[in-house]
Fold:
Amino acid sequence: MFFSLLPFPLSLRGQISPGPLSRPHQSLSGTTQCTSCHRLGGGNHRFKCLECHAEIAQRLKDRRGYHASLMQQPDDDQCVRCHSEHNGADFQIVHWEPSKEAFDHNKTGYRLEGKHAGLTCQQCHNARHIPPSEHSQLKTKDLNRTFLGLSRACSTCHQDPHQGRLGNKCEQCHDFNDWKKVSNFKHSRTRFPLTGEHARVACEKCHKPQAQNPKSMQMVGIPFGQCTDCHTDPHHGSFQARCESCHTTAGWKRISEAKVSAQFDHSRTKYPLLGKHATVQCAQCHQGGDFKRPIAFTRCMDCHKDQHSGQFTARKDGGDCVGCHTVDGFKPSTFGIKEHAATTYSLEGKHAKVACDKCHVPAGVKTVFKIRKTACQDCHADVHKGQFAGFPYNNHCKDCHTVQGFKPSTFTLARHQSTPFPLTGGHIAIPCAECHEARIPPGTKGPAPYRFQTLACTECHTDPHHGEFATRMKKLRPDGKLAGCESCHSTESWTADLRFDHSTTSFPLVGTHRAVACINCHKPPNLEVTLRNVDFKSAPTECHACHEDPHDRQFAKNGVNPECSSCHNSSRWRPSLFDHETRTIFPLKGAHQNVPCKECHKNVTLVGGQPVIRYKPTPTRCAACHGPEVLKRS
Structure:
């Protein structure tokens, strides 16, 4: 098919061209230029993109760059996947997938890491960063509009502050996160490995800015053969040996004692280092490293501060530390019991075992050692809660206690006799705790009472009579005090020497009743054998309540026995007071007056076997006693 080279009419041209070209391809506009981009005739390839874009063709051949990752083999027809034409002059012929902002830069073969990840495309892809050697390879005249021509070397975008002295592989020392943190650089690979404190020194301390280029630090040519290349001699030439003979990079103050001992023997000086002094760093005394400056060392306080704020300056030695401490350590103090005896308060008894800090309360430099108050109550709590605060004791603990121990008390029996309650009788043998500690209320931790509101017996003893004698106990004695239990009892014995006057009761004891034991009349309950629970007021006063009726109710009237006192008294049972003349129908006359009672009143034996004198009925006829034979003779 033959095509004329003459220009086509405008109407025919519109029928052949699919549309106007984009601005970069405007030079190819016109029907005569179609074959510049399109192939004529059959075949697999329809386009000639790579013939014009040689820079892309070269990258595809070298298998590098973004286009090489998309096409395994150079193929013009695949260009239309991302580029389209004949859409007008202002059409963007690059199609970004999915978008320009979301472009996967990893496909270009150069991954954006660290701070690179936050950069925009134009910050790197611009004419300023494309080296001149690449200009001839690029077809475009506006290098700010191309994504080609950049090198992966850091110097493409960044200025080399080292000016090529350290090579062009910046990544050997730096990374993409922070230029100043040379995390990839290993100083151990240099001729000066960093050890000890050197490892913590900032780079700029040694690598100073260069005079000709202040923005570039000096990385080579730095002297490091000896310490004084960087450090000034703090000893001002006092030692001829090298610094490392005593010091290490672990720290200037961490002096190797073994090395120092080998170089310098302090025992040859006027002040040998002993005890804790042997571990003191040289700089603590030789400040500024000046070993030629004289140092005062006669007294401890030439170097050490007085920790006691002048409390011991009045001593003969002026309060020098050696009086209580040694160079082996500030604690423990050498001030012991013997030294304490020379003070105004010697430690004796239990005080000798008390730890120092119990009295001298630790407060650092404010700890008080010169204590003004030395009374017992200054340190000890009053266990008696003020019972002895008043006169005459005035809380003088030493009146009853000693430093040998709080117990036993020195308050003796003889001293107790001077109290309002002298101990007599059975009270003498009673332990103190029976009266004092036993009086602590149950369930409480209160102090033992030593001062009682009342000294009555009932303060300690329970009233066994349950108030039966309350009226008697409230009576006053001649000395004006209440009679109390002592109205009947004494401290000598509870039962012996009773002072109870039975004549003051409604039943005076007379006759043989005076010899009768109390328990015989005042019967204890529950078969008890003591009078502790006896109800004394319930004792009977009638004879028959205590004595059995020996007459077997012969004198009873209407079932009630008459009082025994009508015939007997308490002095003795016999002879009887019975008046035969007035109380019977058989007066004793004549010879009958001299007849013994038993002649008429015979013993009879009752059914139970008990003998009883028969008084009723007694015969009154003569024959009953004398018989008929006797009467006939008379």
